[in-house]
Amino acid sequence: MMDISVPIAKTALLIVDLQNDFLHPDGAYARGGQANADIAALPARLKPLADAMRRKGGWIVSTHFTLVPAKGGEPLISSHLKALRPFLRKGDFAPGSWGQASVDDLAPADLSVEKVAYSAFYMTRLEWVLRKAGIEKLIACGIVTNGGVASTVRDAHVRDFETVVLADGCAAFSPETHRTAIDALRPVAAIGTVEETLAAIEAGRG
Asked: Can you give the pTM of this predicted structure?
């Protein structure tokens, strides 16, 4: 049974980087040959939970990986990302663009935060808006388990947010990488599933 010890009104489903440019068939990653079935399956799996959070008075918080445009609109891309994803180009993950937006199944969010690195807390307003909204607990999901999710969850831990990671609500580019990352998060977060979290919310245990 999932332990929901914080009231639902102070709990947020934290959706990490489930954006069109990552997931949609017309997005940047699909164009670059980086489509992944495990990642693509997440929005449909998470939608019932997101709908229940809204219905029961919880929060939906989305993070959005962003490539900041510089002169001429060319994106500022860190060297390690440029080496990993050479297909990224002008317009990808641009602020306010379709590609940067959350996939339709999970939109809209109550709070949205742009991010430029793995952790959604790094050089962003995320902690500020969570504190102002009175959010004490985060239910984390999204991509990738070993990158944005893991970094964000660890930063949430050191900031004293109670955190649950949905093991089947996250994905990486390989199942083994995903499993390793989930195991590595056990010291800093509770590990749950979408089904048991949904059941707890629907039952009003929060």
From this structure: 0.96
